[in-house]
Predict the structure.
Amino acid sequence: MGDTALIKLQVNLLASLEKIHVNFKKDSLGRKTKTYFQQRLKRVDELNEEFRSTHKSIVCSDIKSDDEYLTTDIASQFEELHLELFCLLTQRHDELFPPTSEKEETKSGTQPTSSQVRFVASTQFPRLPVPSFSGKFTDWASFHDSFNRLIHNNIELNPIQKFHYLKQALPLERDLDIQQMLLTEANYTTAWDLLVKRYNNPRIIFSHHMNTLYNLPVLVKEKSDDIKTLLNVANVCVNEFKRLKLPIGECDHWIAHYLTKKLPTETHSAWERHLGSKIEIPTFFDLEEFLTIRLFTIDAIENRSLAFNATSSRMLSNDIKNRHLYKSKSSARPTHNVKAHHAATKVNPSSQDCCGLCGQAHILRRCPMFLSKDCFERKGIVDKAKLCLNCLSKSHALSQCTSSKNCIQCGQRHHTLLHFPRTSLTNTAALPLAQHTSTSFNSASAPAQGQVAPINSHAMSTSAFDLSAYVLKQLTTELPSRRSVPQQLSHLQGLTLADPLYYQPKKIDLILGADMVAQILLPEMRIGAFDQPIAQKTHLGWILLGRIDSPPSSAITVRCHHANLELEALVQKFYENEQVPTETPMSEQDKWCEEFFQKTHHDETLHGQYMEGIEDYFHLNQIVPATTSEDQHYLLTASNKPTFTSCVLPHHAVVKKDRSNTKVRIVYDASSKTSNGRSLNDMLCTGPPLQNDLPAVILNWRLHKFVFLADIQKMYRCIDMHQDDAQYQRITVSPL
């Protein structure tokens, strides 16, 4: 093999070592097991041996002293990187898997010093508890490893002691056959083998961990604790799959897809924005890295909210304390004749705790008359007295109630005595129809979306219909508007009316639309005289349609609401008023001053420095003369619209005289509007943000003592543009 091939091999070995170093920093903590560190160290040693052997062959050959291999000192680079990587792997291994005994310390190759031995001997560590087993297959791996290391393989314990610890570790209600075994040395081996055979079943362990993964709940709100729990469960399952030697590391894309369906809407949206226009299928490692960074932001927001709430509570408590202090001080002062205009109702102390319903000396929720009524009548009493729906107090409304107690039945914000019972009839929302019922709902006790609300009719009807209803505080006023005189009509004799008291004004509980009327009507009908109402049979009973005799009314009120709004014109005018003008209007005098300044003003020094910067671009091959004109980039689109595939950028100088190196910097304005009213930046796709999240960066700074900031000088000049794309970055320069 020639020298060129050997040098290429050395460069390849250096690149392999750098790749191991980068991948080690990227790998998650869950992947870094003992086997992981052993394989990494083994591979690093193999690369080192191969590099040394090849380097020896190159040095012994007839290689020139000015060869690039020797001038760049690749051997020293490899040696430094190998030493750094070996120390990093060894240190992280000792941190994650510290030696548990002196034998393991010696086996790992690190000999403790005399000071370390004295420190360990003088330190009293707490006693480790005996590992306990819950009986679940998902906890078997943890119990097996801990019990195996602390008890089973402990040479200082005899089989009787091990068997005693094993019985203590097992749950009382499971594995009774092992619990009932006699405490002998021979039975310990039998019991341990039986337990391993029973629970060390990879198929069942895999099934239980999959069930744990699939039973993860869907998160509704973006809370750090919930996201951490989801991520921890996923990591435990993934690590267990790796322990079972499943190739999960090569095909964990489905886990990432499944977990995104469990995330809150806000987190899922942030994840999709993070992916942007990427076409690669995201892995679980990508999702874990994103959620880890996302948790920094969520924790920062939650901590700020907690601090704000604590400050508000402290200010409120101080305010209350100051008020009490002011009252106590004012009561200790001598009496003065002070006139104050204040009106208050004098309340008899004996009547302050009187019931508002029966007048007895007890509160409303202890009133026997109030307790004897049903929930609907209680609700009417509370509404009439204008009491708080939660604590039944008359000193405040529900929105101002400070009580932390809610309904025991449903947990909503109302008193338990005002709870409306709900009956689940079917899996869907089945609503038995009714013409009249005493049921009334409010915002505190209304049925929730998708729940069943039965409304019973006076007629014995078993029909039920599915419908969607809106629960409002009030539907309309009482109907009919005035009381009428009931008539004895012959064609209505013997009919079961849906509302027998139709002539009395009552509260309307339910309004049905025309779509439901067609479903409740039955074909039978009773027709009387010309001026008498018609009786129509329905599933609710017989209903009356038509006119009845009633006392004449002295006044008739007609209300008409009409509104005609030109919505589009109003919205357009609103945006025109709020929009920032793109051009500043100039008077004729201002235009003349601007033209005069441009014609007469010329800075020779600035122009010379400016042209030096342009010439610097030419020397560095960062700019080349244009070989085509704008007319050559003119073409017609498929819809015969003219367009140009080039753009001329305006540029100007930014002068900073306090700079020691670059006093004049050339700035190109790609946001400047062209003849069609658009700029180059308006037409380019920005893509997803590539910068790190600023709150996460600031939080990372708190992990270390020092922070380094760096900048790449003239970075954007070093990016080569394609010939077709470079036409959109044309500039014009006038020579001296």
